[in-house]
Amino acid sequence: MRRINMVATMRALRGGPPIGLTELAARAELSRPTVEGLVEELTGMGWLGEVPPQAGHMGRPRRLFRFRAEAGHVLGIDVGASSIRAVVCDLDGEPAGRHCAAVDATTGRAGRLAAVRDATAQALAAAELTRSDVMAVCVGTTGVVSSSGTVRLSDSLPEWTGLDLASEVGRDFDVPVLVENDCNLAALAERWTGVAQEVDDVVFVLSGMRTGCGILIRGELHRGRRGAAGEIGALPLVGWHRAPAHLTEYPRLPEGTPREQVGALVFTAARSGDPAALEAVDRFARDLAEGIAALVLTVDPDLVVLGGGVSRSADVLMEPLRRHLDPLCLEPPALAISKLGDQAVMLGAVRHALDHVDARIYDIDAPLSAPAPKPA
Amino acid sequence: MRRINMVATMRALRGGPPIGLTELAARAELSRPTVEGLVEELTGMGWLGEVPPQAGHMGRPRRLFRFRAEAGHVLGIDVGASSIRAVVCDLDGEPAGRHCAAVDATTGRAGRLAAVRDATAQALAAAELTRSDVMAVCVGTTGVVSSSGTVRLSDSLPEWTGLDLASEVGRDFDVPVLVENDCNLAALAERWTGVAQEVDDVVFVLSGMRTGCGILIRGELHRGRRGAAGEIGALPLVGWHRAPAHLTEYPRLPEGTPREQVGALVFTAARSGDPAALEAVDRFARDLAEGIAALVLTVDPDLVVLGGGVSRSADVLMEPLRRHLDPLCLEPPALAISKLGDQAVMLGAVRHALDHVDARIYDIDAPLSAPAPKPA
Q1: Pairing of strands A144-145, A134-141
Q2: Which stretch is the leader sequence (chains A, B) (predicted)?
């Protein structure tokens, strides 16, 4: 019962402004003496803090308490083909330190894991924190990821298929390391802080030089039995597999254009009216639409969010995409462009790690320990 | 608090064998005096009943109580193209009376609604009950159904698109009339009493002279924003739209074969080795596989259940279906054949109506009334 009351107290303070004991008791539906005892205990553990009384307050100053978001931190990591991003955030999701490192797309398993370790260390150093301050870690990666954090299949990262990424990253941490498909995390990020905050069933489509999908149902990640939900790109009948080729085969592409710059180049040319670029974008949009239509007709989501490289070229892409997509669906689906840019996966990793911490805080069947594991 | 304790008491008895007050108190985590008072009240309302003491019981006979499944009834209706089925079940889902009427596939709106009314009356008469004994009604129909029970789109029933079916059937009842897509209900039935009882994410595929799909996610119906989840058949890129034609175009089909007998006829011929029939079944399986693959790659379900007419011909269909389906998916999906035959939709309607009744029983924010509304 005490643990249940503790959860009620934490819930009443988590994510909100500082409040006094009377209001806290009312919100947690507990007696004031009960709340007083719990607040004392949770303050002693480091979960709660007292706010100094406001200057100019009339009468006897009220004691105000708040959830100490700085009591713990989580680490979000995005392992991309040509970049590794890491961010350390407090328990409100506020960034305390971050790092982004470029890697070569051909980098193998050992080199990429070393880059992950380095980016993590840099982000922690920027936050003036150490590994022992971290309460949960989440890593986003391309590919089909098993529930235990092994990469079952990855087309785009060399030597990545079969990697037990949770164990590899977990070597450096005493806390849980979650591993999740990057599009799944991007979907979580859109609902947390992006364009999908008001809806529950979300199809996030990553589009650019590769295409992927993450699905939320009733606000929660839908991973599927083998972590392979949203892998519609594997169906040759719909055109995702051939979509990037329309961009790379754009005839006026300067020789030696790095792959990660191809999309921006073709969309820029299309924006200026170049007919060959407009044709390439039209074919790209048609193939993208086929896969999105299959997702829409299966899930009938509240919203489709389009992210990845193409989200910077929505002004060029939207017209042909709508023109190809709408006739394939029973009704035109709601479609929004991500504004999170290349931060989406990393932010989703933070959200996923925070959800893990919250599940621990709110788990009435387990004792609540102090926020961050302290170094020995 | 009393309402919460009432729910705990009802939950402890619902669906289980009769138990004594001591065990009931333990299961409901309530004091024995509290349970005694609640049992008395709920018995007075008609929700609970006392079981006669067992003969041969040693010592003072224990008082045993049970949930009175006969206290109320629900009505499940399946509006098909060529048949209307209705069943009245008690609150354990045990059938008390049923009726099945053949209708012509060309029957229009008024005629079909009259047939529904007639089948309902016949089922109630068989159960020796009246409309006022019914606590909830659920109607299954083909097509996309809005959350308020209007048929937004139906290809297979004449004059059915746009029909406010909930209001039409609701005219005869003072209780809620739920309307749901037939494949959605079949999916519920498979998880309730069919081959999907052990799993949470289910794709039910109805296959025969038409093809449809119902999806359960985390054990619950996934309807989608506009009730159009699972409508992958609308995507021309996957072959569901042309699948039945492979059967109707079987060259040795006797002239004038009624449409609803075509499938059985072709599958029977294939079973006996007829090459043209085997070819027709192979093409049918290929087109069926394309749509199933799109569903599997999107949802990655625990199980695909194949129902409808083809479920009686699994011995002929499974080999070509597997041969076409597995290469389209990342891994061969788990696939089971429905054993519910033509009862699936009706049973799913019963389950959906029972869930509605249970939600009312367990709703702690609303007072609990006596089970069945009595006639004035």
Answers
A1: unpaired
A2: none
Q: How far is CA A79 from CA A83, A144, B147, in A?
A: 7, 14, 41
> Cα(A339)–Cα(A343) distance, rounded to whole angstroms?
9
Q: What is the ipTM of this complex?
A: 0.92
Q: Are A85 and A147 in contact (CB under 8 A)?
A: no
Q: Which residues of A touch B231 (CB under 8 A)?
A: 297-298, 300, 330
Rounded distance between C-alpha atoms, residue B142 and residue B151, angstroms = 8
Asked if A183 reaches chain B (Cβ–Cβ under 8 Å), the answer is no
Number of other residues whose CB lies within 10 A of the CB of residue A276: 15
Whole-angstrom Cα distance, residue A38 to residue B38? 34
Write out chain A's pLDDT in tens, 376 residues: 788 899 999 999 998 899 999 999 999 999 999 999 999 999 999 999 999 876 655 666 788 999 999 999 999 999 999 999 999 999 999 999 999 999 999 999 999 999 999 999 999 999 999 999 999 999 999 999 999 999 999 988 999 999 999 999 999 999 989 999 999 999 999 999 999 999 999 999 999 999 999 999 999 999 999 999 999 999 999 999 999 999 999 999 999 998 889 999 999 999 999 999 999 999 999 999 999 999 999 999 999 999 999 999 999 999 999 999 999 999 999 999 999 999 999 999 999 999 999 999 899 888 888 886 544 3
Alpha carbons within 13 angstroms on the beta-carbon side of residue B191 total 25
Domains of chain A with bracketed CATH:
2-67 (1.10.10.10), 72-187+344-361 (3.30.420.40), 197-339 (3.30.420.40)
Which of B217, B298, B335 would you mutate first to test chain A, the one with the most A CBs within 10 A? Answer: B298
Closest CA to A313 of A269, A359, A275, A283: A269
Q: Do A300 and B223 touch (CB under 8 A)?
A: yes
Residues B128, B350 contacting (CB under 8 angstroms): no
> What distance in Å separates the CA atoms of residue B206 and residue B214, rounded to the nearest whole number?
8
